[in-house]
């Protein structure tokens, strides 16, 4: 283990694996995989997860437009259906038409994303959600296939999306990718970076997530360049915090403190020469603020010695059981403005083909209404944006827009036809994870024949 890793976190997680009798082989395999992955990571790539907490309402995010399916949608969404006329400006014209004349339009608030779709820089994922293995309605009703535990629970499905396990999971698939590539980065601490707090998605078996604020790195206990106006006092405090004591726990704390102090100095110095990008990103938009600091960090990735980085940003407010039409468009508008600005920033930096952003959420919501809102659902719509994206296309299979139809398990909850594992495996493959290593990142991927959906 190096000073750039949290030994205590590793020991805790390795202990959990030892209960299954796999700790030794896991650590050995991880070391080999990490060395192999690092050896092939000569170029820079970044994945940016845009998580929408609360369960985004997919019914009013991507709306059926062809008359037949719009009529079904409007019947199911009485009182909440978006007017068809207002969808005409955001009608999506894919390079490959959907079967049966099916057409979709973006919600009007998502209009800033339309140019990205038309330019082939955005792909749309249809009916994607948490699964263990492929599942049909008949299998669900007969209980003849496995389903994720604790469906429709915010905490558990958020965790399942990010980690492949319910709340309490020790690591997520973003962090497990970090495990494979951190050895190839100049500072392993800067492999998994969270701009919105803490998320299991970025926790690895060895990789730890580094938190930043929208203004940049977070100082440990306010320890910046001076303490009480004195650089000498500041350095003395640093020495005390990072000094070994001979006590196992105290020494581990000192290592974590030193890692934090060193990373703060390194990132602060690098960002001092980074472009501010205030002219690209909108104001009064918390998601855009997070994406701006991610863009600035990407701009100094070479200075930081980074070859592979995984980022996490998020936005809340999507649990719209009521007042959907008053709240949801505003939220979508912020998502669209933030993601469009972020892509524009990567273009300006000359790294658009090296950065892929994608949306995620607890779950989709019911197509059926609950007064003036919608309830917890399952399958959902997601977007993938970036210069490497095979865009202007839909991926996956759209659910049948019908009450108690073949994809509705009841109450307007669509059974996903594409799994998060397939979605994640496609992103991981682009990132550089070999197919043989995908089960290390996504254990359930072994249950799927199609491991790469081809959208990037």
Automatic annotation (TrEMBL):
UniProt protein name: DUF1501 domain-containing protein
Superkingdom of origin organism: Bacteria
InterPro entries linked: DUF1501, TAT_signal
């Amino acid at each position: 283990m190096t000073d750039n890793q949290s030994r205590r976190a590793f020991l805790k997680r390795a202990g959990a694996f030892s209960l299954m009798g796999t700790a030794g082989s896991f650590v050995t395999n991880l070391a080999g995989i990490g060395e192999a992955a690092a050896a092939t990571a000569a170029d820079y790539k970044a994945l940016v997860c845009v998580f929408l907490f609360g369960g985004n309402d997919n019914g009013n995010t991507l709306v059926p437009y062809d008359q037949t399916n719009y009529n079904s949608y409007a019947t199911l969404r009485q009182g909440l259906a978006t007017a068809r006329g207002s969808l005409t400006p955001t009608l999506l014209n894919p390079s490959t038409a959907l079967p049966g004349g099916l057409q979709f339009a973006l919600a009007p608030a998502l209009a800033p994303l339309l140019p990205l779709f038309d330019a082939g820089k955005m792909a749309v994922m249809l009916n994607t959600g948490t699964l263990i293995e492929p599942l049909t309605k008949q299998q669900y009703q007969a209980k003849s296939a496995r389903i994720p535990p604790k469906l429709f629970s915010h905490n558990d499905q958020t965790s399942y999306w990010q980690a492949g396990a319910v709340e309490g999971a020790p690591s997520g698939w973003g962090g497990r990718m970090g495990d494979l590539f951190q050895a190839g980065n100049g500072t392993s601490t800067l492999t998994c970076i969270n701009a919105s707090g803490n998320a299991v998605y970025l926790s690895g078996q060895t990789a730890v997530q580094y938190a930043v604020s929208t203004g940049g790195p977070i100082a440990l206990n306010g320890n910046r360049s001076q303490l009480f106006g004195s650089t000498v006092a500041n350095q003395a405090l640093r020495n005390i915090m990072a000094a070994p004591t001979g006590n196992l726990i105290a020494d581990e704390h000192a290592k974590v403190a030193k890692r934090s102090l060193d990373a703060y100095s390194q990132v602060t110095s690098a960002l001092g020469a980074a472009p501010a990008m205030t002219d690209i990103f909108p104001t009064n938009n918390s998601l855009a603020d997070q994406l701006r600091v991610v863009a600035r960090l990407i701009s100094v990735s070479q200075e930081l010695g980074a070859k592979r980085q995984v980022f996490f940003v998020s936005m809340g407010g999507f649990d719209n059981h009521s007042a959907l039409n008053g709240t949801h468009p505003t939220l979508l508008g912020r998502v669209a403005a933030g993601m469009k600005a972020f892509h524009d920033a990567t273009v300006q930096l000359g790294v658009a083909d090296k950065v892929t952003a994608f949306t995620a959420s607890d779950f989709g919501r019911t197509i059926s209404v609950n007064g003036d809102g919608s309830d917890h659902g399952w399958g959902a719509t997601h977007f993938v944006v970036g210069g490497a994206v095979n865009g202007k296309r839909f991926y996956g299979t759209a659910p049948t827009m019908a009450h108690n139809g073949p994809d509705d398990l009841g109450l307007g909850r669509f059974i996903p036809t594409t799994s998060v594992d397939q979605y994640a495996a496609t992103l991981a493959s682009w990132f550089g994870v070999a197919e043989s290593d995908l089960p290390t990142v996504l254990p359930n991927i072994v249950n799927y024949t199609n491991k790469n959906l081809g959208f990037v």
